[in-house]
Specification:
226 residues; 8-stranded antiparallel sheet; two-stranded antiparallel ribbon; 6 helices; 36% helix; 29% strand
Length: 226
């Protein structure tokens, strides 16, 4: 009876604390009743699962955004290079990025830096190439100045980099990557690529984990083009 009472008490305490309980009872050599009770706290596992789930959710969200932009790329007649050219015609300066919106708006968002470092966000229709808006970014202009410094001496501009990267799939984003040696980073329907600022050579983009983010072989776009 005492043994049963002990087991019931421990089990109740474990369940209240959010854990699970496994109990084993038997008799020792001296005839005395013994109980082997093990309590496993599921809360730590839950926390680990939650943390891991958050990280996976973040990566999944990024992948979904890229997939959406890539799916839109096949439905637009205006390329990244076209959008950059239109933005610079409206707002002369240095284009440092162009991105096809992933919200279904079918709009290119082009960032143009003026000579004084001020940035302009120029939105270009992905349908007909018309400039929809031009808004000056009122944030600190140090980032714009840093981009101009990184591009000093470059022979390949954003439009040319987008044209070069188009050999690796439809470009959905072109951006200046100044983490390490500066280069243009292009995202296409077949992965991510670096475009050399001087030669225009296109090479796979390497992540911090050393992995290349590009897809070998032919993709759906290639088959569709055939």
């Amino acid at each position: 009876m005492k043994r049963n009472l002990v087991l019931a008490t421990v089990a109740a305490a474990a369940l209240i604390g959010g854990g699970t309980v496994a109990a084993y009872a038997g008799s020792g050599d001296d005839g005395a009743s013994q109980a082997d009770v093990r309590v496993a706290d599921d809360r730590d596992d839950t926390r680990k699962d939650d943390d891991g789930g958050d990280r996976h959710d973040g990566r999944d969200d990024d992948r979904d955004d890229r997939d959406e932009a890539r799916s839109q790329a096949g439905r637009t007649g205006v390329t990244a290079a076209d959008a950059i050219a239109a933005a610079l015609e409206r707002t002369p300066g240095t284009a440092v990025s162009a991105e096809l919106g992933d919200d279904g708006s079918r709009v290119w968002e082009v960032t143009v830096v003026k000579g004084d470092g001020t940035e302009h966000d120029v939105r270009v229709s992905a349908g007909d190439g018309k400039v929809l808006s031009d808004r000056r970014d009122d944030d600190d202009d140090r980032e714009g100045r840093a981009d101009l410094t990184a591009l000093k001496g470059a022979s390949v501009d954003a439009r040319e980099a987008a044209e070069a990267a188009a050999a690796k799939g439809v470009v959905v984003e072109i951006d200046l990557d100044d983490d390490g040696p500066a280069a243009w980073k292009a995202e296409t329907t077949r992965g991510e690529w670096n475009v050399d600022l001087k030669s225009g050579a296109v090479t796979p983009h390497h992540h911090d984990d050393g992995q290349d983010d590009h897809h070998g072989g032919r993709d759906h776009d290639d088959r569709d083009d055939d």
